[in-house]
């Protein structure tokens, strides 16, 4: 996908700069032409030589060469690039980018770049949370730049929190999705609004324990990405999951328990054309969440549970004629019979059936094998494939159901 694409990377002075060496290797492997600009503090962390060897191109840092007799044309660099990735983007550079300051080659290139700019912040957690950083990031997104949010984890300072630059694989994924060619069929859902649920729910037993399930959220996130790639405005409601979306246009609401997911769905479904409920919502939740951690004193013999509200069923009751509702069914026996009965009982337009009997398919892995049934009992079975491709099949089915629904 990246063959002959010109990727310009601006590297700032953050420990995360070392990750750029891995990214450059990945990009070159995919056939991209890579050039780099480093700020002077970035050069203290990674040598220009390593990046120059890996990218097979000279690495620039100043407006002129050593001798001062050759000018490094930032305008030309900005014109050359198909995409300009600024990673790691330090708090200092973000602030300058947001305010039009250009006191180095990287910033001057940013200000004159004609191509899309992607930026991946990296800094300590307090810096990342500072209102000025938040405002600068919002300003930069407002200018049309694509943010790759920092991740939560161990930071160079030894602290834990949000501020780690996204991993090279994530940066590559975002670059790839930027260049992904939209196919012709991808236009028909453009402008629609969708609600997608994903991931598990965690039902709190006490402040440290919960009842959960093995759902990773991968399937729901892939569906949200696929819809967004076709121009759908997606609201993603996710239970606890470490997945990330590839499209910054997706608005994400994080929830923990089934009740919270219920409230988020009910508050957000009314204006949506498409509702895809792929979350593995707990069917039962503790009647009482203990305020203090339960002690190992032998007194606790059982946990009393109560059923959660069936969000999908309730949306089936509440949805308008025009809204298309998709449910999921995870079955271990009598798969088709159970899925068809759920489709009818919950008033769905489509149901996506996963069977736990299918080897290699399911909850936590990267592969899935689904059968999709529509309201006319049409059954389509797909082979085992990566969840990203399964998402394409599901969205294709949504697309054709939506078309026949709007004809009625
Ligand atoms: N679902 C929901 N709210 C719940 C439970 C499930 O919205 N409290 C949704 C899921 O998002 C999924 C569908 O219902 O789209 C089916 O989930 P599944 O667990 O397979 O079926 P259940 O309806 O819970 O029935 P059962 O557990 O008896 O198979």
Short description:
With 408 residues, the chain is an alpha/beta fold. The chain has helices spanning 18-29, 48-55, 74-80, 91-98, 105-112, 125-129, 131-142, 168-179, 218-229, 258-268, 311-318, 335-345, 387-407, and strands at residues 6-11, 33-38, 59-60, 83-89, 116-121, 146-147, 151-154, 160-164, 193-198, 203-206, 209-211, 233-238, 251-254, 274-277, 284-286, 305-307, 324-331, 350-355, 367-368, 370-374, 379-381, 385-386.
Q: What name does the CATH topology of the largest domain carry? A: Rossmann fold
CATH architectural name of the largest domain:
3-Layer(aba) Sandwich
Write down the overall mean pLDDT. Answer: 92
* Basic shape: globular
The CATH H-level homologous superfamily of the largest domain? CoaB-like
Termini Cα gap: 40 Å
- Structural domains: how many: 2
């Amino acid at each position: 996908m990246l063959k002959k694409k010109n990727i310009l990377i601006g590297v700032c002075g953050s420990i995360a700069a070392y990750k750029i060496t891995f990214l450059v290797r990945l990009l070159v492997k995919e056939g991209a032409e890579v050039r780099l600009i480093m700020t002077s503090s970035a050069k203290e962390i990674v040598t220009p030589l390593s990046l120059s060897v890996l990218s097979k191109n000279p690495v620039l840092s100043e407006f002129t060469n050593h001798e001062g007799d050759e000018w490094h044309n930032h305008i030309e660099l900005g014109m050359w690039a198909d995409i300009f990735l600024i990673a790691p983007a330090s708090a200092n550079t973000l602030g300058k980018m947001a305010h039009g300051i250009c006191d180095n080659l990287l910033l001057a290139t940013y200000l004159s770049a004609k191509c899309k700019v992607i930026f991946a912040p990296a800094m300590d957690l307090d810096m990342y949370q500072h209102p000025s950083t938040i405002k600068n990031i919002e300003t930069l997104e407002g200018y049309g730049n694509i943010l790759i949010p920092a991740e939560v984890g161990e930071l160079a300072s030894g602290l834990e929190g949000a501020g780690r630059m996204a991993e090279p694989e994530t940066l590559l994924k975002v670059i790839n999705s930027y260049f992904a060619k939209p196919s012709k069929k991808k236009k028909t859902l453009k402008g629609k609004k969708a609600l997608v649920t994903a991931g598990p729910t965690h039902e709190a037993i006490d402040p440290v324990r919960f009842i959960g399930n093995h759902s990773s959220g991968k399937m729901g996130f892939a569906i949200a990405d696929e819809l967004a790639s076709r121009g759908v405005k997606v609201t993603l409601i996710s239970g606890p999951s470490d997945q990330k979306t590839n499209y910054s246009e997706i608005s994400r609401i994080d929830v923990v328990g089934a009740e919270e997911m219920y409230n988020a769905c009910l508050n957000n479904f009314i204006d949506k054309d498409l509702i895809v409920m792929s979350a593995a919502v707990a069917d039962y939740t503790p009647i009482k969440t203990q305020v203090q951690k339960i002690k190992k004193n032998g007194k606790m013999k059982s946990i009393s549970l109560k059923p959660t509200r069936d969000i999908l069923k309730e949306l089936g009751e509440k949805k308008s004629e025009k809204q298309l509702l998709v449910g999921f069914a995870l079955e271990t026996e009598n798969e088709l019979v159970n899925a068809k009965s759920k489709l009818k009982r919950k008033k769905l337009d489509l149901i996506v059936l996963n069977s736990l009997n299918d080897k290699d398919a399911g909850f936590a892995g990267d592969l899935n094998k689904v059968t999709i049934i529509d309201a006319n009992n049409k059954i389509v079975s797909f082979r085992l494939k990566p969840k990203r491709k399964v998402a394409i099949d599901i969205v294709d089915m949504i697309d054709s159901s939506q078309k026949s629904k709007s004809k009625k």
